[in-house]
Amino acid sequence: MTQLTPQPGIMDIALYQGGAAHVKGVSNVVKLSSNENPLGPSPRAIQAMQDAAAGMHRYPSSDHAALRQAIGEVHGLDPEQIICGAGSDEIIAFLCQAYAGPGDEVLYTEHGFAMYRISALAAGATPVEVKERERVTDVDALLAGCTARTKLVFIANPNNPTGTMISEAEVARLAEGIPAGALLVLDGAYAEYVEGFDGGAAAAGARSNVFMTRTFSKIYGLGGARIGWGYGPKKIISVLNRVRGPFNVSSTALAGAEASVRDTDYVAQCRAENAKWRTWLANALGELGVPSDVSSTNFILARFASQAEAEACDSYLQSQGLIVRRVAGYNLPNALRITIGDEDACRRLAQAVKAFKAGQA
Ligand SMILES: *Cc1c(COP(=O)(O)O)cnc(C)c1O
Q: What stretches pass through the bilayer (predicted)?
């Protein structure tokens, strides 16, 4: 028998733990563990995906021209500088596959998104984690962490699971300071939650060493469809299109995403609703002695006195049918990440934390 072994790095990848969706023996469960839009996709997106179902015997478009055109129109970007993927996760994987291999380093922050490490390892590269400053991306630490081997620097802005963001000036300072031959990747998964924010598009349009990723999984409510996109220098798009499979995105996902991106009123409505209940929930938990940093996303990172208290609260919430996310794996053992649900979910959550705190006293 042959000794079949995977490439170096592969077995160092810890299997991804998704947000739970069920609690044994508890009904009326609310899932607040995966930063999904509680309002669901735009009704226009649902209609477009239903319409697309009748044509499923045909292969999808392989150049995604209609979706890239729609994204370009809505965001004011050149469609030639856009690439679509099966979620932004796939774009992150393309970047690592194309630009980082054995001996190369991929930088990200201590509370950075799990896919940066996973995709770096899958490509055979070396993941390098740098410190944040009080749960905020630290540009100085990232610059200090760069070496001649650094190929990719990933930051999510705003970040998951901290919810914090850094300024355009700080992002520019990072782009200026990384080594020649390295690419700064701005992950804008939560960009739409910040009114007027371009997610880093201007930087990615102006600089040859900046790339932006975006997703339809968060404010657009299409996590199940698996679609995201990237924007940046044509040279990079041309490289990524060579590692991309020709039919990497389904026709339903393309149709749903196109209708979603054009439904700007729905996005604005989701953003406003999220902001309203995010403020309400953060204040309610704050009054109960559970603080959080100001969030620019659709979740809050609730901080407890200890890991034991965070875990006890999580267990209690589960018993009440409220599923939130433990983030010890993101070096945040004392915290729980709570997605902003609808009004009912936020009220239930605050009530449950109140009961948990009362039970502790
Ligand atoms: C949710 C999320 C994504 C999106 O992943 P998809 O593959 O597009 O679903 C990307 N980056 C961050 C930081 C996220 O939180």
A: none
